[in-house]
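Reopening this ticket.

The earlier resolution said the output was attached, but the attachment link was broken on my side. Pasting everything inline this time so it's all in one place.
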Amino acid sequence: MAFQIRPAHYSDAPALLALATSTSARGFLTLPNTEKELEELLDDTEGHYLFVLEDEKKVIGSSLIVARHGTAQSPHLYLQLDRTGQRLKLRSETRGRTELGGLILDRSYRGHPEKLGKRLSYVRLFFIGKNPQLFCPDILAELLPPFTPDGKSLFWEALGKKITGLDYQEADEMSRRDKSFIRQFFPQGEINITSLPAEAQSVIGIPGPETMAVTKILEAVGFQYLRQIDPFDGGPHYGAKQSDIRYDLVEKFLLRDTEVTLNL
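Inline output:
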């Protein structure tokens, strides 16, 4: 069995689309799940850096770096938790952060001795460490919270849906095209967390079971919870200064004797 991690090619689009629309993508902030959006992503060779994991030429995983997330045209929006942990406020940021995303691994390869998910996660940091000038000083990772068995977000049901009238999937799809509606609908003042149902409060800033392993992987090399959450699902945002990331640990893990070849 020969594994390889390499940059994605345009010819990988069909395999990546199949991966992004499979059950393997459930529970992750993943790739676009339409052919048009995915092809646009693969065409953008400067703003996005997409990697794939192959098993004997079969694409079984992916991970992504967005060089700059947050501009004047498309700001980074999040809810900031205050020091008391009782109030949230919508924030908008245009200075830009580099975002980690697109992490998917075929379910049949999870738990592999080569720790393939960890390799897909760390290859992004390895690439950033080797090319720091391409990326922002701040690195961001948005993680998903727990969802109900039928895919609903308890946080969205308690807050966003009541504000916008949209189901979670509808709102998520709209945000891919234009995030301005978030600022249009969401309160500009503080949101009192205690006004939400207990079940919605319980998922605020909590990584879901699918992303708990990713959280630990990131924490091990310097990422911390920013007390910022996603306006849609309440998932936690983790971050680190590019200069503070433990690249030595990243390289030690990726470059040890292994069946996984890096071809970057």
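Reporter confirms the inline version is readable. The longest strand covers residues 58-69. Residues 3-262 form a domain with the Aminopeptidase fold (CATH 3.40.630.30).
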